[in-house]
Amino acid sequence: MGRAVTASARLVAMLRDPGNAHALGLSEWMDVVTVARAELLLGTLAHRLDGLAVTAEVRAVLDDARAEASEVRRTALWEANRVAHALAGLGVPVILLKGTAFVAAGLAAGQGRSIGDCDILLPKAVLPAAEAALAEAGWEWVKPDAYDDLYYRRWMHELPPLIHRDRDRMLDVHHTILPPTARPTPDATALIADAVPLGGGLAILSHNDMLIHAAAHLFADGDLSGGLRNLWDIHALVVEGGADGLAQRAAQHGLGFAVDRAMRLSHALYATPVAPRWQRLTIPDRIFRRRMLARDGWGRGRHPLTRLAFYVRSHLIRMPLPLLLRHLWIKWRKGRAAPASG
Amino acid sequence: MRVGPVGYRLGSDWRAPIAAIEALYRDYPKPDFADYTVRLEAEHVWRRWIRPSVRIGGDYRLPEAAPLPLGQGLLAAELGMNLQMALGHRRHLLLHAAVVERDGRAVIMSGISGAGKSTLALLLAQQGWRFLSDEFALIEPDTGLVVPFPRPVSLKNESLSVIPAGSRVGPLLAGTPKGDIRHVAPSVEALAAMDRPAKPVLILFPRFGFPAATRVLPPAESFVRLTQASTNYVALGEAGFRAMVRLRSTVPAIAFDYPDGPSGVAAVEALWAAL
């Protein structure tokens, strides 16, 4: 497999055990930095290596990454503050998800983390009022297309994506953590009932629900791009808060399989402390690991067939086949009618 | 290759763009570590051979960027290097500007594409000024100094005639999205001094093709113009704001129009001498 596989693997090894950072040569460092950027893990790596001796060239890159992460954190917290402000009249707390939740709660998983959109969870019943309040406060639809809009509303677990017209930040408003068309049906009422208030109109999911959401996002949604970063979230959450009662809670949401796989892979890649039953990879797990490490030292995706298989899988697990075919048919016809639009 | 404080690593699915870059960048240092990786990739596997078309990839990229034909591979590489700076660089405040220096005092010339920054920088370099940068002015947040970033100058269309004889140039790239382009490597002296920063003393907003005129900009206008010229002012947050306030409050800003190259050079020298 040679040098190419080792770039991703080296990044993982360095996150797992930063003490070995000094042993790396400059050309290996170049590969690690490139892979870490591609996997959105450079800020996380920079935090893991903070205070350790590295050569000046590498230190400069890591210092930049730490500075950028602190700016990303500040921007994400401000956006959460603005969303809570806009939705204060709803009378329910705004539950932050993913990266914004981690930094708002001061969790280790948030240290150096890249954060793109602001993701929030609200009870389905308040969505119409939330939409009106957000529109009032300056959020606009990103996709002004009737089919896309209808598609989101009928088949997705979130509203069509919104963007704020002044701050240019995206907002995803969820009412549960998986599309209704996916086979597992998480218990959205329980997610919201057990959320932990943070003050200021904000809340986060309970510790186990954060873990379950991260696992669901990895293995029951998406095509595993950014998988190493999402798996790092799981690792950091377990190291900080353990996994007591996780299996039972996952079963309640119908996501036992996703959580089991997340725990096994997190242990295998990042040496997360987990119960013995999660310490052995299954044969399918190994294919997931291959997909997660499919990047070479130049940041290029490797194993195109594995990638394609996971891309196809991501659609199949999101919705039943007839619905998928109908969706792809409409998208294809629209693509032909208007080739310029994405 | 290394350009001032920034190391680049360049990879390509084809040999030709790398050869063009190696020739143009022959006199640049070759570092052991690159801050940024640029990749020139075939759009599809078969497009490596059939109607080859170059997609600009790397650590940071624009998903919607249009690919370029292989004959413009050098331009793709240059655009890729610019993209890494514009999207990824946080160590310095970046201004879209050309920079020249004399006696340790630097002049930052900012303006939109076509305002004549590159041409003026190249003409001034022939009058004994040191060339620091064509595309980006790099302002060090802690010191306020401008750090050299002497990439090759990209000249377009009617400016091609000002290329001094004996310069190291790239191939003439005809019919690019921005017209005809040729890259000119900075002098060996400018490259040898690429680690020596300078203190900015004057910010100019030149505009080519208008009757000669100068106007001192009030602080608010120069601040707005500078933020518009910066690619990473917002991303830098408070550090960017502080660097920008310091630059604006310590360095005078002047907008000036000039009808042709020689009068532009004379105007810059007069403004500099009057400081």
Explain the overall architecture:
- Chain A is built from 15 helices and 7 strands.
- In chain A, helix 9 (207-219) packs antiparallel against helix 10 (227-241).
- The model of chain A is unreliable at 1-5 (pLDDT under 50).
- Chain A is of the alpha/beta class and 342 residues long.
- Chain A has one domain.
- In chain B, 28% of the residues lie in helices and 31% in strands.
- The model of chain B has no long low-confidence stretch (mean pLDDT 91).
- Chain B folds into 2 domains: 1-89, no CATH class; 92-151 and 186-275, Phosphoenolpyruvate Carboxykinase, domain 3 (Alpha-Beta Complex), CATH 3.90.228.
- In chain B, a hairpin with a 2-residue loop joins strand 6 and strand 7.
- In chain B, helix 1 packs across helix 2 (73-88), helix 3 crosses helix 7 and helix 5 packs across helix 6 (238-250).
- The interface between A and B is medium-sized, with 22 and 24 residues.
Q: How can the largest sheet of chain A be summarized?
A: 7 strands, mixed
At CATH level 3, the topology of the largest domain in chain B is Phosphoenolpyruvate Carboxykinase, domain 3
**How big is the Rg of chain B?**
18 Å
Number of strands of chain B: 16
Estimated helix fraction of chain A: 55-70%
Q: Which CATH C-level class of the largest domain in chain B is it?
A: Alpha Beta
User: How many domains of chain A?
Assistant: 1
Mean pLDDT of chain A: 88
